[in-house]
Amino acid sequence: MARQNHFPIVINSIIAALFFTLYCIGCTAAVKGSSNGDGKGQWQLLLENTEVVAMHMALTHHNTVLIFDQTEAGPSGHRLRRRYNGTRCTNMRRDVEDSLCYAHSVEYNISSNKLRPLKLSTDTWCSSGSFLSNGTLLQTGGHGSGAKGVRYFSPCGGNANCDWRESKLSLTNDRWYASSLLLPDEDRVIMVGGRRVFTYEFIPKLYINEGSFDFPFLRNTYQRREGGNNLYPFLHLCPNGRLFIFANRDSILFNYRENRVVKHYPRIPGDGSRNYPSSGSSAILPLDYTNNFTKAEVMVCGGAAFGAYRAAREGRYLKGLSSCGRMVITGNKHEWNMEFMPGPRILCDMLLLPTGDVLIINGAKNGAAGWNYARNASHEPYLYRPKKTLGRRFSVLKSTRIPRVYHSSAILLPDGRVLVAGSNPHNRYIFENVDFPTELRLQAFVPDYMDSRHHRFRPTNVTIRYGHNDRYGVRYGREFNVSFWLGTEPSNVVEFTAYAPPFASHSISMNQRLLRLRCKSLVRDVHGWVAAVLEAPPSSSIAPAGYYMLTVVNGGIPSLSQWMRILQNSGGRH
Fold it and tell me: Cα(349)–Cα(419) distance, rounded to whole angstroms?
């Protein structure tokens, strides 16, 4: 929660020699800073052993990271003394090989760089998740015992008392390889698809016996011989409250309240597919106050060639797709604008950085998703700058020596780094005599904007203060205050961004969202303290209620992020 202390700025009078006021036309009046450097970033090795594979990762507002795998992968890296039902785990062979004698989920504390084992009772293999407005992770689906499972994790800052909670409720359909999205309605989540499941459903249900809803779009985009090619569909919330849904190569605008397809968008050009097991990635580009958050543009990158899944099962690994498509999904004119990455990519993660740029990281260059179906790991991240001219948007960043292929993940941290973990193209933990051993090392990629040469331009001591009537957060359209320290002279551009942290799995960052907020005024004193008045987003269709990472970006150099909370106008859970 944001700190409640008052600004360290007291303005009794405005004296030209000491103070100046900048009224931000969208925070374009700013403090002088350095633009993004030409550096390629750095890699840090944080831990040799995360104990479990990071098939899924999610950042909590207590600055911890949930890392978890499936529960059917056999022994993990953390052996338990007792099963969760209380029975002892002995050194007998049956216990040594029993999955129940091992942890399959851990909580990583960013500041202490330590892990804490967590309890998972049902199988989360290839599941989905969304954060609710109070910061609780709603985690759904999986395989076998978890296919219809509903789980919750309410973070408590590493306290040993918080753990996974299994709900007594269950989903209507199996949700294995399904996607989930938090809706504008308060704490309502939609789950879409699954393996051979052509429906969607909601949590919570609005009426007794509410089940699932038939969704022909999934049936029409399904390719049986290619493993589906429409699993883990891309879901993005449009500013008008409708859903952009992309599967295989096609996409629609969907009114979930009326169970109605509003429009069909053009098919993305080129052969191949973008969804699992072809496994490209997608992001909705930053939403901006300058157009009242009315324009939304989606980007889809990478994927597998046509026939790649079948070929990989036969030992042939086709070259992946290098193309990316951008399309404005609002308004009435829709066309995919295509461009190309520096190389082919599947199994990649697309993360929005505080600067508004897109980081494309992890993955491989050939094959498809699945057990040992990919080859030629992509060691070099790509940086994509959406506002640059065509042909100058992509750059290649510093390479890692650790391959991150199937079942790897990446998330943005509040300190500006990107946490990278996982990789296991096997149904067990295997460390020898394979092309891609099970990977338990934990890394951070440090973008160039965090380099020490930029520190003199970096905003520090960022503090958020809400209104007197809303001590827990800010409500839609209301003003709130941000203070920070900056020792440079004023000029150029300062921006304020709010980032919704995603649930990351299988190349999808579910619910990821970045907003550029309106800055109504900016005041800086002679000592370098800056006071800003910001305006919260106007509605839950723009920013569903919940916790966001607020970042001050000075001339392309971000501060450390602080957590802010957006409340429903009807109230908010504490």
Answer: 12
